[in-house]
Amino acid sequence: MWLVVLLLTAQIPEVPYVPTAPKVVEQMLRLAGVKKGDVVYDLGCGDGRIVIMAARKFGARGVGVDIDPVRIREAEQNARAAGVSGLTRFLVKDVYDTDVHEATVVTLYMLADVNRALRPTLLKQLAVGSRIVSHTFDMDDWKPDKTIRVGRERVYLWIVTEKAKALENP
Asked: What angle do CA 119, 97, 120 make, to 5 degrees?
């Protein structure tokens, strides 16, 4: 009986967990120009590596969001081990229900259709000048401001503008 209840109430991730290589993480953060004073949100944070590197290497505050409580516990342990617990926090939450208005940088390693589905919320909530960085997947007809290659991987950067906000949220 309990197994049935757990299966019915468990949320199943829409995107499989695939960790981003450290060299890609660093280049994502560099492309976004992350610095002290920034607030980095990693949607689908997995083990927390992006938020942790943003705090440890760039002095930014970070928030990791993941639907999987096991990954969030792992991220919290990793942040403690890295000595950045004071700069990071992790939330068990669905990325579609996450308030990102305080973010200056949002990082993504989602599928293209998830990026597209998140785009209206990101553009509605993020301030002009905020940056969105995605590993591998773009946002369809919203062309990135910059694209780089890290080995065989692509990383995309978008900078939120009034024009982009107006087109998405008329």
From this structure: 15
All domains of the chain in start order, with CATH:
18-168 (3.40.50.150)
Structure tokens at 65: 């969001």
Comparing C-alpha atoms, which of 109, 71, 61 is closest to residue 92? Answer: 71
pLDDT for res 163: 87
CB atoms near residue 99 (< 10 Å): 11
The tokens for 29 are 């953060």
Structure tokens belonging to residue 160: 């939120």
pTM (predicted TM-score): 0.89
**The pairing of beta strand 39-43 with beta strand 61-66:** parallel
Tokens of 99: 């308030």
What amino acid is encoded at 1 in this protein? M
Strand order in the sheet with 39-43: 88-92, 61-66, 39-43, 105-108, 131-135, 153-159, 146-150
Q: Tokens 């669905």 belong to which residue?
A: 94
Q: Which residues contact 117 (CB under 8 A, 6 or more apart)?
A: 96
pLDDT tens-digit series, residues 3-60: 343 333 344 445 677 788 899 999 999 999 999 999 999 999 999 999 999 999 999 9
